[in-house]
């Protein structure tokens, strides 16, 4: 909110289209557009979708076209994207009348098939039907047309090298939309077309530009007709309007069949807040730019997404700062059309930090700030309306304290003032802040008329141009840019050690004709003091030796023609940014023994006529398409210590050092997993630990590598991963390692030493274990019938170089048995088969299946305690023990050692005790189900660290307490993580298990059973995972809480307290909390859960009205609020819930009648099938029945409305 307030104040108040006013020939010198305060990237001709429902793809194509033009600052009309390709050629085979959702179209094209982003120019001849919207209704099928377009455009775009690389972002606020338009051109949005659209934009508008025609405004009698899509290309905050570009063609086009709803340029204005324009989850920003290696970026060094005009800075104190390479802040003077928002975006700063820096700078050294002057504090009053929720007000005060008092250093504490009228009718005020609590303001209860929040905020100006002091302070800039070479060149020279002081370093005479008779360090400049050549070639070891790496920013020496820095001790790679040298003709780098990489050749033909890199590790000139080389190297350094998990920090450090040295020695190593050309990987004679990485089997080079050498890494253990079956290696040396077990059949002739390993399909141990398992189950007459031995089904060892034979017969024929690629048993399913053993007895056999990943024992009549030794099944990913009521005991913390576990289901079991906090170590866990169990106690706050958890179902258990704040609040989550880390540091692994052990003993005592043996302690892997999860929570930019959670089912427990904050779980699709003692008002913030499909809060003691904001839940399908004390009337605006199928509002205190507008809920455009309004005693039955008939909601026969005749309770609604 704070960032939005600042951006709205700091940006241009209006941003219209100006492409039709100022052509591309009228540009100012340099890279700055002629008009910086309007949108130059609107196409000169609007698209026309004709009679087909392609509006989404038309809008997406326009946004891509404008984004590409904005990125390159090129003529927008030359970047026309073919919309039909992105509509008819995507998966699913759309027709003229099918339609599309915006997010779905973006996903299908950008994420799955980027080759469909085609230039219109390549489709016009080969696939004219894709270029002619008028012919689209007559085309069937589209597949041959799409194939023709693919063939015609194969040189322009393909999946490996698409024409444009695009991305998309959901935008949820007005200021984000406006910022996107200023920086990237356009925003795609959904818009509802009402029946008065052609009335307000009538025939007369055809010849008038859209921004010259009155804006479409609110009409309460208008009815929605259909959904549509368009692009937002401008805004006007003074008049509260958006400017949209439609896809209905131009009114001046004589071939356009439309006579209404169009303007001369295809644009129109609309009041903000109308017709769903700018609605979250229906509004997306798009960025597009050419890929590295294309004609626009052959060397992969351009940054298209950055602000286009480089903003020059000045030193705050030139005398002290010119050679201070660590100076954090600079001064920038606003120029021309600069706004504060443009400056913040241009330097890629955080708006809040920037504003606070200006305020503190002015207070410390500037003139005294007066009320209303830029960067001064201003008093703000925010009216809260009729809000009597003390808990919500307390939270608001806490947030206000943090934002305005703590961060903004406001001169006074934020406070709330409420007012009421005494018995004499005189208004009385009460005041409260975070110290006194909101209850002080609400001491008069229902007599409180209203409240307002008061706080001091910093006044942010739109621009300072023309004022007395138009400069701002900018800090933490990665590569500051100086217009004056007197400022930039000394810093660049010092960075390499060529100068120490800001003295006269330029030699303006000609370069010495005999270098051996001249000084060994020489810097030459032209008359304007631009450096033209640099020479530093020491002869002795003590003479001006240069060390370190080559500076990234040296292309700022724009006049440099010769650079001679041979015979030094430079190291590292030649920066790819050196392709930016404009006049460099001679580059001498020889005899720098540790200098590596490649030489970036500038694109100019006259540049770099000669370079010398002898006696270096430089491989030659750089090829094109190398933008990601350096980034991949950095990623490789970060990734590899995790791949070879080190058990101590020292081992991790040694591995990091090893890889650093390797990358310096072999500069073409551009990221271990991205190198398709890798043929040999030699990691022998190191001190690598843990297991072989399974990810080698999925690496880009897995099909190409011929040799892998792990020789003499004695601390490598475990088995050969099944994923290695994808390798085509001819030799894998595992001599002098502790790798044991079987080898995937595909590699049996490649692994050395051969005598140490056996083929996985010959694993008699697994076969014997399976036969023993069969004896533990009672056959149902079908499942185990297939478990028959077949000695005749023998697969011989493959010959050298021959492909492996088929998997063994138990992998192919035995029902319920699945095997992995290495022919090891990876899955067992015994669902519904009664077992003649305890789970502990079964476990002895399961431990003989080391590759077991999935185990399903649902409904197997398992009895006895849940064994903690399940943690020994180290590779387990899926465990289903549901519907075994005789399975007792507790969930042991030792199960946290199952570090690969993704799903765990103990629903319908007799498992009791509490939920282990140590389960926070299960960082791969996606689903946890324990419905209809006896698990009790509170929900662990530490589970807020489960960043991958998607489903949590504990319905009808015995949980108490409240939903932990750490699940969605960053501060609470960090506190929980700190406590977890402290507990790990101060406890041994056995002590970490103690609580779970005590719970197990207590559970056994209650059931009069013999107490089990103490379970095994947490494994080192579990402790390590806990430490990693807890430490990650404090990293900057980490997501807050359970951000991936999609289903939260906690119905039928005894939970209490507020659920405020749960709206931060933005991925939620199902929220089921029925039957708990929540209380309080129905939280209006739940409307922020834009992906919610099911909301069930039946019988939770909720009060208050039905929030209008729920109309934003555009994907809601089921709503159950029955059995509460909800008051007020049915919100008319809920008519927008088009996906809602069932709505249960029975047994509340609702009043009034059915809104007339709700009749549309029965229309074909809506999905409602059942509406329950019974047992609402404050609704007068006759009036309610009459309103139902008048609305017409029943006329279609699709909707059933239930209204009970007699209420079971009296109306308790407060009289007006």
UniProtKB/TrEMBL annotation:
Ranges for domain Peptidase C1A papain C-terminal: 45-250
Q: Name one Pfam family in it.
A: Peptidase_C1
SUPFAM superfamilies in the cross-refs: Cysteine proteinases, L domain-like
Keywords on record = Glycoprotein, Leucine-rich repeat, Membrane, Receptor, Repeat, Signal, Transmembrane, Transmembrane helix
Q: Where in the cell is it found?
A: Cytoplasm, Cytoskeleton, Cilium axoneme; Membrane
Keyword Transcription regulation in annotation = no
The UniProt entry, under Gene3D superfamilies, shows: Cysteine proteinases, Ribonuclease Inhibitor
Q: In what way does this protein cross or attach to the membrane?
A: Single-pass membrane protein
* Top-level taxonomic group: Eukaryota
- List the PANTHER family: LEUCINE-RICH REPEAT RECEPTOR-LIKE PROTEIN KINASE FAMILY PROTEIN-RELATED
Return the protein name: Peptidase C1A papain C-terminal domain-containing protein
Query: Which species is listed as the source?
Result: Tetradesmus obliquus
């Amino acid at each position: 909110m704070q960032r939005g307030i600042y951006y709205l104040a700091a940006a241009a108040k209006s941003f219209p289209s100006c492409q039709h006013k100022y052509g591309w020939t009228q540009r100012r010198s340099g890279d700055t557009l002629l008009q910086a305060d309007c949108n130059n990237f609107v196409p000169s001709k609007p698209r026309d979708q004709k009679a087909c429902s392609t509006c989404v793809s038309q809008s997406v194509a326009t946004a891509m076209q404008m984004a590409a033009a904005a990125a390159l600052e090129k003529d927008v009309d030359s970047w026309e994207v073919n919309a039909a390709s992105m509509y008819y050629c995507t998966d699913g085979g759309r027709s003229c009348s099918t339609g599309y959702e915006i997010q779905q179209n973006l996903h299908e094209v950008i994420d799955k098939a980027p080759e469909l982003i085609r230039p219109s120019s390549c489709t016009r001849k080969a696939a004219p039907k894709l270029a002619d919207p008028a012919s689209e209704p007559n085309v069937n099928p589209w597949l041959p047309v799409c194939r023709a377009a693919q063939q015609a455009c194969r040189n322009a775009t393909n999946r490996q090298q698409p024409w444009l690389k695009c991305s998309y972002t959901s935008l949820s606020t007005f200021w984000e939309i406006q910022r996107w338009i200023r920086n990237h051109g356009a925003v795609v949005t959904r818009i509802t077309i009402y029946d008065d659209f052609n009335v307000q934009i009538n025939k007369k508008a055809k010849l008038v530009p859209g921004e010259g025609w009155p804006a479409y405004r609110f009409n309460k009698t208008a009815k929605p007709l259909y959904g549509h899509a368009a692009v937002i290309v401008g805004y006007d905050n003074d008049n509260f309007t958006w400017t949209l570009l439609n896809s209905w063609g131009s009114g001046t086009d004589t071939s356009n069949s439309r006579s209404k709803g169009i303007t001369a340029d295809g644009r129109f204005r609309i009041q903000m807040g109308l017709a769903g324009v700018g609605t979250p989850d229906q509004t997306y920003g798009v960025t597009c730019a050419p890929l590295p290696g294309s004609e626009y970026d052959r060397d992969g060094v351009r940054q298209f997404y950055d602000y286009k005009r480089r903003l020059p800075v000045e030193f705050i104190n030139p005398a002290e700062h010119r050679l201070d390479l660590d100076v954090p802040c600079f001064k920038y003077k606003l120029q021309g059309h600069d706004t504060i928002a443009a400056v913040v975006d241009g330097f890629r700063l955080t708006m809040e930090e920037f504003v606070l820096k200006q305020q503190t700078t002015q207070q410390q050294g500037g003139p005294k700030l007066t009320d209303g002057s830029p960067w001064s504090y201003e008093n703000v009053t925010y009216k809260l309306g009729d809000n009597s929720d003390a808990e919500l007000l307390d939270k608001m005060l806490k947030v206000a304290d943090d934002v305005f008092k703590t961060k903004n250093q406001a001169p006074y504490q934020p406070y709330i003032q409420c007012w009421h009228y005494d018995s004499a009718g005189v208004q009385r005020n009460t005041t409260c802040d975070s110290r006194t609590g909101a209850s002080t303001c609400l001491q008069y209860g229902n007599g409180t008329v209203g409240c307002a929040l008061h706080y001091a905020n910093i006044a942010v100006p739109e621009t300072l141009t023309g004022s007395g002091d138009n400069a701002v302070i900018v800090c933490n800039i990665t590569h500051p840019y100086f217009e004056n070479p007197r400022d930039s060149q000394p810093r660049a020279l010092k960075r390499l050690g060529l100068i120490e002081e800001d003295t006269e370093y330029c030699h303006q005479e000609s370069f010495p004709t005999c270098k051996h008779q001249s000084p060994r360090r020489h810097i030459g400049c032209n008359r304007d003091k631009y450096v033209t050549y640099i020479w530093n070639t020491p002869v002795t070891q003590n003479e001006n030796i240069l060390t370190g790496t080559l500076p990234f920013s040296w292309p700022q020496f724009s006049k440099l023609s010769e650079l001679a820095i041979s015979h030094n001790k430079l190291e590292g790679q030649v920066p790819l940014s050196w392709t930016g040298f404009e006049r460099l003709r001679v580059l001498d780098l020889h005899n720098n023994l540790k200098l590596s990489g490649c030489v970036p050749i500038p694109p100019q033909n006259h540049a770099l006529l000669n370079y010398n890199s002898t006696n270096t590790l430089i491989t030659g000139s750089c090829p094109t398409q190398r933008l990601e080389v350096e980034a991949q190297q950095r990623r490789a350094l970060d990734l590899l210590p995790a791949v070879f998990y080190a058990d101590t920090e020292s081992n991790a450090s040694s591995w990091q050092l090893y890889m650093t040295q390797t990358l310096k020695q072999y500069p073409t190593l551009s990221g271990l997993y991205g190198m398709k050309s890798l043929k040999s990987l030699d990691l022998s004679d190191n001190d690598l630990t843990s297991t072989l990485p399974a990810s080698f089997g999925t690496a880009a080079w897995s099909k190409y590598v011929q040799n892998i050498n792990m020789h003499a890494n004695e601390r490598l253990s475990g088995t050969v991963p099944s994923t290695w079956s994808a390798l085509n290696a001819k030799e894998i040396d595992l001599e002098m390692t502790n790798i044991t077990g079987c080898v995937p059949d595909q590699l049996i002739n490649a692994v050395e030493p051969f005598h140490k390993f056996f083929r996985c399909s010959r694993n008699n141990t697994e076969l014997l274990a399976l036969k023993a398992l069969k004896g533990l189950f009672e056959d149902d007459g079908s499942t185990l019938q297939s478990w028959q031995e077949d000695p005749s089904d023998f697969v011989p060892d493959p010959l050298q170089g021959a492909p492996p034979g088929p998997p063994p017969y138990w992998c192919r024929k035995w029902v319920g048995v699945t095997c992995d690629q290495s022919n090891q048993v990876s899955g067992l399913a015994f669902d519904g088969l009664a077992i003649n053993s305890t789970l502990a007895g079964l476990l002895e056999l399961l431990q003989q299946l080391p590759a077991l990943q999935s185990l399903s024992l649902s409904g197997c009549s398992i009895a006895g305690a849940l064994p903690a030794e399940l943690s020994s099944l180290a590779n387990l990913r899926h465990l289903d023990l549901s519907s075994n009521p005789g399975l007792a005991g507790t969930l042991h913390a030792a199960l946290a050692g199952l570090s690969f576990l993704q799903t765990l289901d103990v629903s319908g079991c007799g498992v009791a005790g509490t939920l282990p906090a140590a389960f926070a170590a299960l960082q791969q866990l996606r689903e946890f189900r324990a419905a209809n169990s006896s698990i009790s106690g509170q929900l662990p706050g530490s589970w807020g660290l489960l960043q991958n958890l998607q489903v949590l179902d504990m319905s009808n258990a015995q949980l108490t307490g409240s939903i932990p704040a750490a699940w969605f609040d960053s501060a609470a989550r960090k506190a929980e993580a700190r406590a977890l880390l402290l507990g790990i540091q101060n406890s041994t692994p056995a002590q970490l298990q103690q609580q779970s052990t005590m719970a197990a003993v207590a559970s056994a005592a209650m059931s009069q059973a013999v107490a089990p043996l103490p379970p095994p302690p947490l494994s080192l892997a579990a402790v390590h995972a806990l430490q990693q999860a807890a430490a990650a929570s404090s990293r900057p930019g980490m997501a807050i809480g359970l951000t991936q959670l999609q289903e939260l089912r906690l119905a039928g427990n005894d939970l209490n307290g507020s659920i405020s904050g749960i709206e931060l779980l933005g991925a939620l699709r199902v929220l089921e909390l029925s039957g708990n003692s929540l209380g309080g008002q129905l939280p209006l913030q739940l409307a922020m859960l834009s992906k919610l499909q099911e909301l069930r809060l039946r019988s939770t003691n909720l009060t208050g009205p039905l929030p209008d904001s729920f109309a934003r839940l555009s994907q809601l399908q089921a709503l159950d609020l029955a059995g509460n004390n909800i008051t007020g009337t049915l919100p008319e605006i809920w008519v927008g819930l088009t996906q809602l199928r069932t709505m249960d509002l029975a047994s509340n205190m609702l009043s009034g009648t059915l809104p007339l507008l709700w009749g549309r809920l029965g229309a074909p455009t809506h999905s409602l099938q059942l509406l329950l309004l019974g047992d609402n005693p404050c609704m007068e039955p006759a009036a309610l029945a009459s309103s139902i008939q008048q609305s017409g909601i029943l006329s279609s026969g699709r909707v059933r409305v239930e209204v009970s005749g007699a209420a079971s309770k009296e109306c308790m609604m407060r009289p007006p």
